[in-house]
Design brief:
alpha/beta; globular; 8 helices; 35% helix; 314 residues; 5-stranded parallel β-sheet
Length: 314
């Protein structure tokens, strides 16, 4: 039966394919570190409003907010080094989802993550939703962000993720830009998929807000480091079991200013300790996961649209 619904609720109802991950791994694990500091909205930077989301939710209206700016500055000043060190000790490559304005203000951090072999992807120019954004404005933001992140690392980014709500045309604009292998603006599955976008195969990599340190924020579910690691490990154990017969992917979302705090970083250490000990996990950047999924679908190696030949699945 052919559905006329604009939304796909069925997914891999009849079962996802067997895991295509290297070495017979049961599960692909994607660690995503969001780099938003310096791109949070700030009246002092000429933005119309101040950011109001952090340890305490309070919006300063019509005036600069040095308190909020100082909270965010903790991320690149202190949090990054803890996170980078933890990833290095476990040999885990990560995707640093980076806002364009942050990339321009944190050149040393961007150079360091590139030197360590991590991926830098795009997270919007500012840390802001794209819901309701005019198409022309969004098109310009996508291009500007792609250029800024590429200039900061020396490597053209291949991925995109919008803060929370994207617009109805975000994905099409990414396809029209031509420089994006994948986007992470989907939360509806535990397995990647391929969609036709602007006439080309485009990989959708699911992201998650539950296995995410954002739940340390006020009103969230995490208080202690163990809350984060226990919850993420519950997801890990279930996905590892399912990965014995079907492809599975797990995303772990982190933020420099959140998990990088001294009382929280132990949660990431504990999580990676147990994941690494399993021996059947493929830690990979999102670009590598997307490339592997394309390969399993019989598609040729991805290239930017400006130099790509027409593609068809095998």
């Amino acid at each position: 039966m052919t559905s006329t619904d604009r939304r796909d609720f069925r997914g891999a109802w009849d079962g996802a394919p067997a895991a295509p991950w290297p070495g017979g791994a049961r599960l692909a694990v994607s660690v995503v570190v969001n780099v938003e500091e310096g791109a949070e909205r700030s009246v002092a930077d000429g933005d119309p409003v101040n950011e109001s989301v952090y340890e305490a939710r309070q919006e300063v209206v019509g005036a600069p907010d040095p308190c909020m700016e100082s909270h965010y500055a903790y991320g690149p000043r202190a949090g990054y080094r803890r996170i980078a060190g933890t990833l290095a000790r476990h040999g885990v490559p990560a995707t640093f989802s980076t806002c364009g304005r942050a990339a321009t203000r944190l050149p040393w951090l961007m150079a360091d993550l590139a030197r360590r072999g991590h991926e830098a992807s795009c997270h919007g120019w500012l840390w802001e939703t794209h819901a309701g954004m005019a198409e022309a404005e969004e098109r310009a933001i996508i291009a500007r962000t792609h250029a800024a992140v590429g200039a900061a690392t020396g490597v053209a980014p291949r991925g995109w993720h919008t803060r929370s709500a994207s617009s109805p045309h975000t994905r099409r604009l990414l396809g029209e830009h031509g420089g994006f292998l994948y986007d992470s603006d989907c939360y509806d599955d535990d397995v990647p998929r391929i969609a036709q976008v602007a006439g080309r195969p485009h990989v959708l990599l699911p992201y998650a807000f539950d296995t995410n340190d954002m739940r340390f924020e006020p009103g969230g579910a995490f208080v202690h480091a163990e809350d984060f690691s226990r919850y993420c490990l519950a997801a890990f154990d279930r996905l590892m079991d399912e990965g014995a017969t079907e492809a599975r992917m797990m995303s772990v979302g982190l933020h420099l200013r959140i998990i990088g705090r001294p009382a929280r970083i132990g949660g990431l250490e504990a999580l990676l300790d147990r994941m690494s000990a399993s021996g059947e996990v493929w830690f990979a950047t999102r670009a590598r996961i997307a490339a592997r999924w394309r390969e399993a679908a019989g598609l040729p190696e991805w290239t930017p649209a400006t130099s790509a030949a027409p593609e068809t699945a095998a």
